[in-house]
Design brief:
It is a single chain. The protein is α+β, with helices and mostly antiparallel strands. The chain has 5 domains: about 120 residues, Bulb-type lectin domain (Agglutinin, subunit A, Orthogonal Prism); about 140 residues, Orthogonal Prism (Agglutinin, subunit A); about 150 residues, Hepatocyte Growth Factor, CATH 3.50.4; about 100 residues, Phosphorylase Kinase, domain 1 (2-Layer Sandwich); about 210 residues, Transferase(Phosphotransferase) domain 1 (Transferase(Phosphotransferase), domain 1), CATH 1.10.510. The protein is about 25% helix and about 25% strand. The strands form 14 sheets. The chain has a 6-stranded mixed sheet. Strands 3, 4, 5, 6 and 9 form a 5-stranded antiparallel sheet that branches. A hairpin with a 5-residue loop joins β19 and β20. The radius of gyration is 32 Å and the shape is flat. The relative contact order is 0.06. Bound molecules: 2-acetamido-2-deoxy-beta-D-glucopyranose (9 copies). InterPro entries: Bulb-type_lectin_dom, Bulb-type_lectin_dom_sf, G-type_lectin_kinases/EP1-like, Kinase-like_dom_sf, Prot_kinase_dom, Protein_kinase_ATP_BS, Ser/Thr_kinase_AS, SRK-like_kinase. It catalyses: L-threonyl-[protein] + ATP = O-phospho-L-threonyl-[protein] + ADP + H(+); L-seryl-[protein] + ATP = O-phospho-L-seryl-[protein] + ADP + H(+). GO terms for molecular function: ATP binding; carbohydrate binding; protein serine/threonine kinase activity. It comes from Prunus avium. Belongs to the protein kinase superfamily. Ser/Thr protein kinase family.
């Protein structure tokens, strides 16, 4: 099934990239001021949108200053070719592997005691060259920026601190390196490094970020001492005439590029370690008119798709991908059928399966015919095999993988069958292989349910059915046939409850702390059930006043007596709530159990629900929201781990969280909570909860654990951060309608400002903001095992435990929406 959303997102991402790209490059060529290249101590540059005039070299060939990054008012301190309209950056500083990105208004000062100092508008240090005793700086016509002392001796040079590019006249010695960028437009440290090793060997390797651990090289000059002493490399030289070679200890040269160099007098020449791991030399005429771009003179390795294997680390394209070589020897990355890009904005990050695969999932589905098989020729993932079968036939190879729940792909070649499991790595196309790849692709889940569509559970507000369905399917990360499954699971669930309940009801003993009221008493207290406070799935809540010691305002929940189970439900709830005591939970005062009537009496909280608090025109304060988030988390932790009987709430949402006089969050409505014995951590029950907050496992026939509450908490946390509803198609454009998706996208793009709608208080507390967003993303992981438990959540929120970078919340199915189905609705 085509992934429409994916395609649209991808197209959008491309447009955005293109815009960024053009805005970066279509800058007017700077007006050249007459200069001798010398910069005095005390001189400074400011990062401003337009007409920021950089420091120029005497010939005007090179500029040193701020390059705009995209359209976010961010700048990169850099050196570039001043006369080439398409800005080509040849140097930029890194700080802790990150590009030292400077917000608008940042300043670069040349100081005597610290060299170059880059500060944010708030005065924070962004980067420093270091070094003292500086008399002046010089931007040399070679593109080298040099800090000099009083005697014009060099103290520090950009040539000695290269990033991803070498210029003629530049050399790098042993243990020095070049580092690639993340991508064409992201200048943070990327996955590739070129290093002149201590033994004289010049190597290119992948590194495993965020550490600098280097895998085995996929390119090497082998310029070690070997058999001939003195033949080890001393330095990598890019000489002023444009020749690039490893200079050996004995004076010999190992040329990287063969043949004549292009004229360095008439051309700009550079050698760059590209973000995709290709080390290449380019040239560009100095005297040109119109459209002229960089010409490739030489590059290595010849086929990076083939050269990165096994211990050289995962391929250029990341896991589960397929690498193919373009004409210019640069790699292109794709995903096999049934997989899609992990990050739609970045094809080099790898692919994720659009489905869950594994023995547990296969077993749960209990249907044999789960998979289709896609066949690809000459495509191989040379590692990740777990078994090799020989002699074998192609059919048997396919069959064997098909029957094996561990097997994701089988490769067949010359009577041999390799069965492989996820993640697949180093995938590439190689026409010389003569192989077949059998890829198991999970069938659309809809084709597995032959059941007629049962009536949908409550859908009170369905203004626009099309968009609601679309929104929910996206949210739940399942197919549009959610409703089928929902129904089916409901039925299944109820059967389970029936069985369990019948066994259990006899054991329920009421806690004597609770008061028992007569129906009449409560009728009087609520003035005949007149003032309605709200409605939940199991009944209506009324306001009332009771004389118990003193006059107490109460909320009386009148349960609908519709189903047989309610009786047990009622006793369950009483028994559970009667034993809970926590400041972040609403207290139950008493109950009424008279004939057909079932009522619960709770303390009344003065400040209403979290929903009415959050979703108003005026945002509540950031501090208050933070406190509420902590409160909800603590209440949930208590329910999950601290009370005598573990309670899964199953319906955490802002409507079920109340605020007391002090705006302390108090979780209410345990009406849906399922009792679990402490030693019984996993169970199946009916689908509970409210759409938009419901964890995906409800729809997947997976075990229901406390992690469903963690999921809902994640959604609520995002709502608290953003002060908006989790699904809001009315007030938002398509990409913002689903809060979880939108926030994750913003997070990926580093646009947390947008998430809080540029709210000043929140932006002033960016650490907390970022931390909370990251925790929320951990909580909404589709895979329950990735979600933290509430204890961990609290530790992360409180900063006791470091929050790691969260993965994509829905790697399995960031959903296929069948447009034709939607239009039929
Ligand atoms: C460069 O020009 C500045 C003034 O613009 C002058 O102070 C400085 O001495 C000059 N440097 C050289 C090396 O000519
Ligand atoms: C940089 O120079 C500007 C202008 O002279 C000055 O206002 C600012 O304080 C300087 N910053 C530093 C860190 O020296
Ligand atoms: C550039 O710097 C190098 C080394 O400091 C020096 O030898 C060379 O003359 C300078 N070139 C120019 C054009 O200033
Ligand atoms: C660049 O990539 C790094 C690492 O993936 C990321 O942390 C950073 O936010 C990105 N920067 C931009 C400007 O996208
Ligand atoms: C650069 O190297 C080439 C080849 O080794 C040599 O012919 C040329 O003279 C060198 N140029 C300079 C400026 O050292
Ligand atoms: C640059 O090109 C122009 C026109 O093509 C020509 O007149 C000029 O002599 C060239 N200059 C150099 C330095 O080659
Ligand atoms: C310049 O480039 C643009 C877009 O890349 C292209 O449309 C145009 O034809 C080019 N002009 C010349 C003279 O090559
Ligand atoms: C400038 O860069 C853009 C974007 O990569 C490209 O489309 C265009 O062809 C380039 N123009 C020249 C003259 O290189
Ligand atoms: C692979 O095996 C499956 C299961 O037997 C079968 O449905 C499918 O048609 C086979 N595919 C090929 C290409 O043999």
């Amino acid at each position: 099934m085509p992934n429409h959303i994916g395609a649209r997102k991808l197209a959008m991402a491309f447009t955005v990239r293109l815009l960024l790209f053009s805005s970066l490059f279509l800058l007017p060529v700077s007006v050249f001021a007459q200069t001798n290249g010398s910069i005095a101590v005390g001189d400074f540059l400011t990062a401003t949108a337009a007409n920021s005039s950089p420091w120029l070299s005497p010939s005007g060939d090179f500029a040193f200053g701020f390059s705009p990054l995209g359209s976010n008012d961010l700048f990169l301190l850099s050196i570039w070719y001043a006369k080439i309209p398409n800005r080509t950056v040849v140097w930029y500083p890194l700080r802790d592997n990150e590009a030292a990105v400077a917000p608008k208004g940042s300043t670069l000062n040349l100081t005597a005691n610290s060299g170059l100092v880059l500060k944010s508008p708030q005065g924070d240090d962004l980067w420093k060259s270091g070094t003292s005793g500086v008399a002046n700086g010089v931007l040399n016509d070679t593109g080298n920026f040099v800090l000099q002392d009083r005697n014009s001796e060099s103290l520090w040079e950009t040539f000695n601190n290269p990033t991803d590019t070498l210029l003629p006249g530049q050399t790098i010695g042993r243990s020095r390196q070049l580092s690639s960028r993340q991508s064409e437009t992201n200048y943070s440290k990327g996955r590739f490094q070129l290093l002149l090793q201590e033994d004289g060997n010049l190597v290119i390797s992948t590194i495993n970020l965020p550490t600098n651990f280097a895998n085995s090289p996929y390119y090497a000059t082998d310029t070690t001492s070997g058999t001939v002493a003195g033949s080890e490399g001393k330095e990598l030289v890019f000489n002023a005439s444009g020749y690039l070679y490893v200079l050996r200890e004995n004076g010999g040269k190992y040329n990287l590029a063969v043949g004549e160099a292009v004229s360095a007098r008439d051309n700009y020449i550079r050698a760059t370690l590209n973000f995709d791991g290709i080390f290449a030399q380019y040239y560009h005429p100095k005297n040109f008119t119109g459209n002229v771009s960089w010409t490739l003179r030489w590059s290595d390795p010849d086929d990076i798709c083939q050269s990165i294997t096994e211990d050289s680390g995962v391929g250029v394209c990341g896991y589960n991908s397929i690498c193919t070589l373009k004409g210019d020897k640069r790699p292109t990355c794709g995903c096999p059928t049934g997989f899609s890009l992990l990050d739609p904005n970045d094809p080099y990050r790898g692919c994720k399966p659009d489905f869950i695969q594994g023995c547990e999932e296969d077993e749960l589905s209990r249907t044999k015919d789960l998979y289709d098989v896609e066949v690809l020729t000459n495509t191989d993932w040379p590692i990740s095999d777990f078994v090799q079968l020989k002699p074998f036939t192609a059919e048997k190879c396919n069959e064997s993988c098909f029957q094996d729940c561990l097997c994701a792909v089988a490769i067949f070649r010359s009577e041999t069958c390799w069965k492989k499991k996820l993640p697949l790595s180093n995938g590439r196309v190689d026409t010389s292989l003569n192989s077949l790849a059998f890829i198991k692709v999970r069938k659309d889940i809809s084709t597995l349910t032959g059941a007629p569509q049962p009536p949908c559970p409550d859908d009170k507000k369905k203004k626009s059915q099309t968009t609601v369905i679309r929104a929910e399917s996206v949210l739940l990360g399942t197919s549009i046939f959610v409703n089928f499954i929902l129904g089916a699971a409901l039925c299944l669930g109820f059967v389970l409850i029936f069985r369990k309940k019948h066994v259990r009801s006899a054991e329920i003993v009421l806690d004597s702390n609770l008061r028992s009221f007569s129906y009449e008493e409560l009728q009087e207290a609520t003035n005949g059930f007149t003032e309605e406070l709200g409605r939940g799935a199991f009944g209506v809540v009324y306001k009332g006043v009771l004389q118990i010691g003193s006059v107490v305002q109460v909320a009386v929940k009148k349960l609908n007596y519709v189903m047989q189970e309610i009786e047990k439900e009622f006793k369950t709830e009483l028994n559970v709530i009667g034993q809970t005591h926590h400041k972040n939970l609403v207290r139950l005062i008493g109950y009424c159990d008279e004939g057909q009537q079932r009522l619960l009496v709770y303390e009344l909280l003065s400040n209403g629900t979290l929903a009415s608090f959050l979703f108003t025109d005026i945002k509540p304060s950031w501090r208050q929201r933070i406190e509420i988030a902590y409160g909800v988390a603590r209440g949930l932790l208590y329910l999950h781990e601290e009370c005598s009987t573990q309670i899964i709430h199953c319906d955490i949402k802002p409507q079920n969280i109340l605020l007391d006089d002090y705006y302390t969050a108090r979780i209410s409505d345990f009406g849906l909570a399922k009792l679990l014995m402490m030693n019984q951590s996993r169970t199946h029950t009916a689908i509970r909860g409210t759409k938009g907050y419901v964890a995906p496992e409800w729809f997947r026939n997976m075990p229901i654990t406390t992690k469903v509450d963690v999921y809902s908490f994640g959604v609520v946390l995002l709502e608290i951060i953003c002060c908006r509803r989790s699904v809001d198609v009315e007030n938002n454009c398509e990409e913002k309608a689903i809060l979880t998706d939108w926030v994750y996208d913003c997070y990926l793009q580093g646009e947390l400002d947008a998430v809080v709608d540029y709210e000043v208080q929140a932006l002033g507390d960016k650490t907390t903001l970022e931390k909370f967003v990251m925790v929320a993303i951990w909580c909404i992981q589709e895979d329950p095992s990735l979600r933290p438990n509430m204890k961990k959540v609290i530790q992360m929120l409180e900063g006791v435990v470091e929050v790691k970078v969260p993965p994509c919340p829905s790697p399995f199915a960031r959903t296929c929406i069948d447009e034709s189905f939607v239009s039929q609705v």
